[in-house]
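Notes from the pairing session

We agreed to fold both candidates in a single pass and log them together. This is the raw record for the first candidate, unedited. Please don't reformat it; downstream parsing expects exactly this layout.

Candidate A
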Amino acid sequence: DLEEDWMLTEVQISGFPTKSIREIKYQDMNHFVALTATIMRKTDVRFSLIDAVFKCLRCESKTTVHQNGDGRFTEPYECGSDVCGRKGPFKLVQEESTWTNKRKIQLQESFEQISGGEQVLSKLDAYIYGSGDVDCPPLGSLVTVSGILKGFQTSTANGKTSEFVPLLEVNHIEFTDAEQTIQITDEDREVMRQMAADPDIITKLVKSTVPSVRGYEIPKEACLCAIVSPENMVLPDGREFRGHIHVGLVGDPSVGKTVMMRAMQRLVPRAQYAAGKSSTTKGLTVAVTKDKGGWGEGGYVAEAGMLVLADRALALIDELDKFEKEEIQELNTPLESGIIPIHKAGINRDFYARCPIIVGLNPKYGRFDPYEPVPKQISIPADTLTRLDLVYKLLDEPKKDADEKTAKHIIGLVTKASRIHKQGNYTNAAELTKVWGQDQYTPEISTDLLRKWVLEAKKIKVEITKECTDKIQDFFMSVRFQNTDTVPVVWRTLDGMLRLLISEARLRHADKTELIDANRVIMLVKESFEVIRDPKTGKLDSDIMSGFGKSQRDTIKSILSILRDEIKHRDDIIEETGIQKEEVDDVLTRLKKQGDIIEVSEGKFRAVKTV
């Protein structure tokens, strides 16, 4: 039997079989339980009374009252002296009372613990007690906690209710590596050792990634590189070289972008996914809200968003363009450094978001216009877009031969699935695979083995060889100086290529880079260059990412030179410059917003300053 003051002991109990929060029932109340969950909130250390000693201010005798741990302060009903017996007043004698350190945390079950039909993640509050350190892992950590489950009675303005809220009094807490949930056997390692000897292994890995979505091999490989990208490296001057690779997928409707992102989520334990208006950037980063439940740090509390929950895992943000501009720019710091600094409402902390980020984006007007620069068609700020190492266009372009193959692929897939599901009710891919058989729709490398492969790849320390850096440098310099009137690539591109070089070696399960890795990096980067190609000139122009490539700048100069000396109507500007109406309208809107010109009357403009 456990005594009421068991939390004061230094003995910690672990090793119990764990359950999820939603598996807790009333039968568990007042029993020792163990849970696996994620830390969503936590307070600083508080001092909590266990046995409070009170002095009667009438007779000065002392009475001890045990506090029940629900946060309410309990005083004596009457003096404990047989002679006095009066109902106060009483004074707390702090130095003679028994205290403990206390920290409150909020636990939330992980996405892996819920079934496919569930939408809401269960939460549970818990207290960590101790006479010494009551520290716990940072927000977003997956932990195993064990302790006694208590029930605290709720109350309303009309008095106490018959409902009790579960609360865990923690005896032991430890960080749990989510990747340990993937069991890798000696047989698995032997299979992977043989796979690593295959010179075509990366091609097979890519083809085994979402085979139900046909094509897009380069974006798929880029996403796999992001998943196995390295940790940050500290440099001699103290600066950290970012290791995580961030990828943007910009797709026309119905190209399979979301399906691909969901498939990447299944490969990484604790990977977090959010989409469009179903979230806010506060839900993505860290939310600071007014405390309404005893959580406050100066009246406010910080709650981990999905990037914090994805620390050292993977974050996927679909339909990022649906957020407001100011919200999107809050992602700049975590994209660059993996840190989310919070300095508001008395909370001054850095929260970690050390993970690769894959974002899905939609063209501004629903479908790509081949005659407009890609960045201009994406509704996210340039300073956020430039922090993505690779950005790919996923186009839906009618091509008869390719479309016939894709149509047959989709029809064959759904037809066979309907036939098999008619024979039995299969609720997950593992069950279905047993009866499906091996064909063009099933991966050569199973999803289970692919999960183990990328997990092992992330553990490999890679040495970059000179032959690879020479190849990367030669390519970078040749692109950088291929034009004299634009800046085709910036130095951030070179940083990204070095990150990719390490990832490509990791994907092969190699601890040293080879020329094949450098060649694949160049292939990935060349494809991503298409987003900075000026459709007018065909040249690469890194300034297009900011919305002002050289051709756009030339257009702006032409229009400003016309408006410098006199007022002009928009139609006159179009006639004099020969520039298309849509582009003139866009430039006039930009210049007006920046304060370079003013609209003196409807359709008539003049410059307000010399440029």
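Candidate B (folded immediately after A)
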Amino acid sequence: MNSQLSFDPFTLEIIASQLRAAAREMFVALGHASQSPIIYEVLDYACGLTDSRGQLVAEAEGIPGFIGVLGDAVQATLRKHGSALDPGDIFITNDPYDGGGSHLSDVALIAPIFFDGQLVAFGVNKSHWTEVGGMAAGSWTTDATEIYQEGLLFPAIRLHDRGKPIQSLFDLIEVNVRTPAMTLGDLRAGVAALKVTQERAVGLCEKYGAQAVQAAIERLLDQGQRAARARLATLPPGTYRASGFLDNDGLTADPVPIQVAVTVTPDEFICDFTGSAPQTRGPINTTLSSLGASCKSIFKAIIDPWMPTNDGVFHPLRVIAPPGCVFNAQRPAPVSTYWESSDYATDLVWRALAEIVPDRLSAGHSLSVCGTIVAGEDERGQPWIWVEPQPGGWGASQWEDGESGLVVAGDGETYNIPVEVAETRFPIRVERYTLNCDGAGVGRRRGGFGLIREYRILAENGAELTASFGRHKFPPWGAAGGHEGSVNAVEVFDGDRLLFRRGKVTRHKLKTGDRVRLITGTGGGWGRTEEREKELIERDLREGYVSNRG
């Protein structure tokens, strides 16, 4: 850290704060310019800056699973292109196996930032495009059996060459997606946002000098590592275990066994998923990069959720998963509903440590992103595609009842699409939107409630529904004697007649007038039910959360 000696800590902290502000400005710019509701309403994206080696140094508060792989995307670009980088270059990647990918819909754009001919940093953003082609509208589905069915794959290739767009690549994208205006609009929004951050980073170098900026970056990484190790040392050392099941892989009804051993020492936090099931034929697999992001999010929640995020923070974290297991799938395994394993990896570590650090972790929550796609064609034959996650119930903690109607851990700062936007942009009517007060998750502190959201299809040409609601079979776990929560589910009605209730739905044809009911579960309870205070029971009765019948 000798490069810091000639710069006072106040200046370095100002630079560090402005780097974080540059990432947030990128976030705002991308959201304002995007075309997909899943970006500008749901906020299904993340933005950050890395150093010249691809280490994350500043981020905007986006999806944790994306923030955790921004550096991986930059490092994949460096491995492929080495020193052959020029000012004005922009690269694109969504490779799940080599490039910080999650699934193909999540596309990263990377821009090297130069000052006086020196590479000083990278700007990078990653967002969920509504369409990247593939076998199904919306580009993810529950029955894919290989990555090639899931859309276009960009293996860390140039999108702009020295400031000039490579038009042939834009043309290729345009003819391979169902909604080209939306997809290319999201692409251009990401490019524009990168340019904003490039200007801010270069401005910092002009004001303070490149050496000062580099010193601030080193200081950020060093501070992150020191703070993480100091907090890690306060955890009780030992090895803690948890196991469970994924509902199924989307193709069969067979549960998929998973497990973790978490070893905590004063210097390391090791998450070992050895013993989990082999990668599956269906698309619930995740890759090592996305698994690492899941472990980063729970690691940070445990040591200090308020600490600024950078790769120094994660220096003590080690993630182990044998190649070819469901948590470290190998090419060309399908990964389009990857959240059903990556989020469960977070949950395994969470469960292993929930009663070890009860002041920092709650009981289990609805967990699955509960991804939903409703798609069809308008009266002119033009496709429309609506993609969104569904919030659910969070588990109770030793201090308070669980949160209700909140997006799951892997989705971080996201939302679902507001009723007004959904009804304006798409041929549907939202007929019900309420808490799912099903009586599950009771305890001294009760689990938060999920949601019930019901749509009626108005499209004259009908529509099709795809959904992946994990935790359909195995409910959120209770802690310290608290009861289990309830499962997620999708119900489809023909008029008032229930056709089915499932956890996964694959391109089911809907007629005009059909109803879709999306149900997310209640979180697990904490502590014994008989210990719940009388005034809290009376409040629940007064608010209509529970009934005194029976």
